[in-house]
Design brief:
Radius of gyration of chain B: 19 Å
Largest sheet of chain A: 5 strands, antiparallel
Number of strands of chain A: 8
Shape of chain B: globular
Order of helices and strands of chain B: EHEHEHEHHHHHEEEEHEHHHHEE
Oligomer: heterodimer
Distance between the termini of chain B: 28 Å
Largest interface: A-B, 37 and 38 residues
Radius of gyration of chain A: 15 Å
Shape of chain A: globular
Strand content of chain A: 35-45%
Helix content of chain B: 25-40%
Distance between the termini of chain A: 19 Å
Number of strands of chain B: 11
Helix content of chain A: under 10%
Number of helices of chain A: 1
Strand order of the largest sheet of chain A: 6-5-4-7-8
């Protein structure tokens, strides 16, 4: 069990990051372009394939993905993590295509490239939740 | 795609490097000013001769290249503010050449500097760009160390690259640094030191990482007919941003898209280079640059550095002044240290680390780390 720590709050200063961090309930929602039928991460104002601003909507992903790389972060970039044990940083290629970078949760042990994971959302306070990767059920 | 227009008619007439300080002793503007002043003295010109400025410094805001020019007393026709991380200084040189060729400027100073501590370096991440701030910020990701740990892990997985191979780069560069009295780390580094050092973001260890510091460098470019003596010439150049748009952990960089053009422009091949100055924020990125610039096959970079004498007097000199890994990374100044070192070598002013033969060399720039990856690549070939 990792020691107690409080994650830094994201700066929510526009409708896109507000939505990503405050909405979607337990599901991770990504931007999806209806015209291109493509999923987008990180969330953007327009589709990076067709530049449409109107064809984008938020859609939940399955949450399932595969680890494509990982590291154990011994020296973090933020003092909020000073009281935490080193966390895993994972590159997860979601079923839908995009790659997301997330920490593993307490249940994730010994990640390997090719392992399946699931995204789960955790509440980090102030109505904000972020996805972490956990071992699939 | 055809090659870009040649880079004729312009020479690099001078260079300068500010002292590197482990602890910031002065304002960032001081390191910028000192670098510019030294370069102008070397080129034997006055500030009033300068009519163009390219400036890059991560800690420049709330100033910018225009307000910096004003601070330095430069009334200019051409201004470029580098926003390409460690690729900026080379891009500043390439774009300055175009401006001079077109007659939009005659004498351009290209400067890059910063005044950083380790904490200041990490503080910068929140202001660096939105995707990093928003979508990496709430995680413990280790800053660029964690990002390039993901790259190194994947490169080791895909190609069998070993830490021992990457360590060979760090060790050889530290030997080169013994001849650079501006380098902050000049004592010898052994492979055991490298392998046994503490992990920062596994597999990135302490000696894979640069030491953030304060410092800077500058070069002066001018129309050939104004130069007092034969200067150093750019004979090839290229840049690329956001290659492989959808990739996050990137092993194939923008260098792949213009490496062939670079050597075609120069009418030379990779083995004709007397030295290379690679962008060494991490040994793994140097290995990737060697692969993507065509010095070896993709995936063979580890083997290449392990088997090659990379010292300044070896068969394939790399980062002849020790690179950022030995000198320290003065923020955006990391993008000009290789350029300054290349000009120094071609001017036969390398002192204790002068390459025995130094008539042509390649300089690479890389950076602008966004969501999980560097976005910008740039390179040029210099000849005397």
């Amino acid at each position: 069990m990792t020691a107690e720590f409080r994650r830094p709050q994201p700066v929510l200063d526009n409708s896109i990051n507000e939505y990503f961090f405050r909405s979607g309930g337990q599901q991770v929602e990504l931007r999806f372009c209806d015209d291109c039928q493509r999923w987008i991460f990180y969330p953007r104002v327009a589709c990076p394939s067709c530049l449409s601003l109107d064809s984008l909507r938020w859609k939940p992903v399955s949450g399932r993905g595969v680890i494509t790389s990982y590291t154990k972060v011994y020296r973090s970039q933020h003092p909020a993590f000073d009281t935490s044990d080193p966390l895993w940083l994972l590159a997860v290629e979601l079923e839908e295509g995009p790659v997301i970078l997330v920490n593993g949760d307490d249940m994730l042990d010994s990640p390997q490239i090719g392992n399946e994971v699931e995204l789960v959302k955790i509440d980090i306070g102030e109505g904000v939740s972020i996805p972490l990767a956990t071992a699939p059920h | 795609m055809k090659n870009p227009q040649a880079w004729d008619g312009v020479v690099i007439a001078g260079y300068g490097e500010a002292p590197y300080h482990r602890r910031q002793q002065e304002h960032v503007l001081w390191y910028l000013a000192d670098s510019v002043r030294r370069a102008l003295v070397d080129a034997e010109i006055k500030p009033s001769d300068v009519d163009g400025l390219s400036a890059t410094a991560f800690s420049l805001p709330p100033d910018n290249a225009t307000t910096l020019a004003h601070h330095l007393g430069l009334d200019v026709r051409w201004v470029h503010h580098g926003v390409h991380g460690g690729a900026s200084a080379i891009i500043g040189v390439l774009e300055a050449i175009r401006a001079i060729q077109a007659g939009d400027a005659q004498v351009v100073v290209v400067v890059a500097a910063d005044a950083f501590t380790v904490d200041g370096h990490m503080d910068l991440l929140d202001r660096f760009n939105r995707p990093m701030r928003d979508y990496l910020g709430p995680y413990s990701y280790g800053g660029p160390n964690g990002i390039f740990a993901l790259v190194q892990r994947r490169h080791m997985y895909e190609y069998g690259t070993k830490r021992e191979q990457l360590g060979a780069l760090a060790v050889a560069q530290r030997r080169n640094a013994a001849g650079n009295d501006n380098a902050l780390l000049r004592g010898p580094l052994t492979l055991d030191d490298y392998l046994n050092a503490r992990m920062i973001a596994d597999p990135i260890g302490l000696y894979d990482c640069v030491l953030p510091c304060a410092g800077g460098g500058a070069v002066v470019l001018m129309a050939e007919d104004l130069a007092k003596e034969k200067g150093i010439r750019v004979i090839a150049g290229g840049q690329r941003h956001n290659y492989l748009l959808d990739e996050v952990v990137v092993l194939d960089t923008g260098f792949q898209t213009f490496a062939a053009s670079l050597f075609d422009q120069a009418e030379l091949g990779p083995s004709d280079m007397h030295f290379v100055q690679l962008y060494d924020d991490y040994p793994i990125m140097e290995v990737i640059q060697l692969e993507d610039l065509g010095f070896c096959e993709k995936g063979e970079g580890g083997t290449f550095v392990e088997r090659t004498n990379l010292e300044f007097d070896g068969t394939f000199p790399v980062n002849t002044g020790g690179g950022q890994l030995s000198a320290g990374q003065c923020g955006a100044g990391g993008g000009i240290i290789g350029l300054v070192e290349g000009v120094r070598q071609l001017s036969c002013e390398g002192g204790d680390r002068q390459c025995p033969t130094a008539d042509v060399g390649l300089i690479a720039g890389f950076g602008m780390v966004g969501y999980g990856r560097g976005l910008s690549t740039s390179a040029l070939i210099l000849a005397n």
